Amino acid sequence: MARSPPQLPNCNCSSETLPTAMDAQNVEVAALVQKIAALHADIAKLPSLSPSPVVDALFTNLVMACVPPSPVDVTKLGPDAQRMREELIRLCSDAEGHLEAHYADMLAAFDNPLDHLGRFPYFSNYINLSKLEYDLLIRYVPGLAPSRIAFVGSGPLPFSSLVLAARHLPNALFDNYDRCGAANDRARKLVRADEGLRKRMSFHTADVANLTDELRKYDVVFLAALVGMAAEDKAKVVAHLGRHMADGAALVVRSAHGARGFLYPIVDPEDIRRGGFDVLAVYHPDDEVINSVIIARKIDAHAKGLQNGHAHARGAVPIVSPPCKCCKMEANALQKREEMATTELSI
User: Which among 139, 140, 137 is positioned nearest to 149, based on CA atoms?
Assistant: First the structure.
C-alpha cells in the first residue's frame, strides 16, 4: 500500500528562503575545497617533502580531510581548483616517494627487513588493499589461478607485491616494474633474506610504454595509482596495456573516488573500456583503504567481449558497495573465532 507523504509543519518562511539539499551540498563542497587549498598552499611552501614532523603533520591533515564521505565531484571543479588538485597529486606523489625511500633504507638495516614491515605507518592499508584486490579478482574473474603477475609502478617499498605473494598467491611469480633504478635497488634489499620470496620476486627498471611482448606472459597486471597521473596519461597507459596484454588476462587498476581524488588520480572506467578491456567491477571503499579498485579483463578478439559466458553492456558496470557495518562486525567476529580455534588446535 502506498503511503501518503508526511505533512510538513506550518511555517511562515517563504520556500525561497529555505536552504535546499543542493545548497547545503554546495556549501559543504566549497568549505572542503577551501580547506584542501589551504593545505596545498602550506605543502607547496615546504623546502623539502622528506619525512619530518611538519611534513608528516600536513599530509596527515590532508588525508584526514579527504577520507570522510563527501558529495564533491573533483572532475567538475573549476579551472583554478583543477590546477590546484593536479599540483597537489604531484606533491603527494613526491612525498610518497620520499617516505617509501626513507623507510626502505630503515628496513634494509635489519637482518631480515620483512620481519619489520609493520614499522611503516601505512602498512595496514596495504594489507587491507591487497586483500580487497585479491577478493575482487577471485570473485569477478572466476577460475583465475595466476602463475605470473606484473606490478607496474612498484616503487622502493613494493608492499602490494609482498603481501599478495606471501598471503594470497604463494605460487605465483611477481615481476615488479618501476622507472627508477634506485627504487628497484632498494626493493631488492627487502627480500634478500627470504629465499622463497627472492626467487619469486624480480625487479625491472623500465617504463611501461616500452613494454610490449613481455606483457603477454602475465595472467594479471596491477597498475599502481600514480602511474600516469593526468587522466590522458593514464588512458594512454591503459591503451598500451590493451594492445600488448594477452587476451583474457586480468587488469587491476587503482583509482580514487570523491574527495580522495585530491590524493590520487581518478580513472574513468570508459577509458579502460576504450583500451580494449571488459570492465567487470568498480569498488569504492568507505574505510581506511584510500584507493578505489577497478577489475577488468582483456577482451578476447574472437569472443567479441564475452567473458566466461557473459558480457557487461556499456554503462552497466557493477559498482560494488562496501559491506554494511553489521556485515563487517560479523566478518570480524568470525575471523576472531577462526583465529581462536586455530590457536587452540596448535596448543
Answer: 137
DSSP element (H, E) containing 309: none
Give yes or no for a contact between 115 and 190, defined as CB atoms under 8 angstroms apart.
Answer: no
DSSP one-letter string for 277-296: EEEEEEE---SS---EEEEE
> What pLDDT digit, counting tens, does each position of 103-141 carry?
999 999 999 999 999 999 999 999 999 999 999 999 999
Distance of CA 56 to the CA centre of its chain: 21
Alpha carbon 210 to its chain's center: 23
Max CA pair span of the chain? 77
* Nearest residue to 188 (alpha-carbon basis) of 113, 111, 95, 100: 113
Residue 128 has which C-alpha cell? 587491507
Within 8 A by CB and 6+ apart from 58, the residues are 39, 42, 43, 46
Reported pTM: 0.82
Please check whether residue 214 is in contact with residue 241, taking contact to mean a CB–CB distance below 8 angstroms: no
Query: How many angstroms separate the CA atoms of 15 and 23, rounded?
Result: 13
Burial (CB count <10 Å: 0-12, 13-18, 19+), residue 259: buried
CA distance 90 to 85: 9
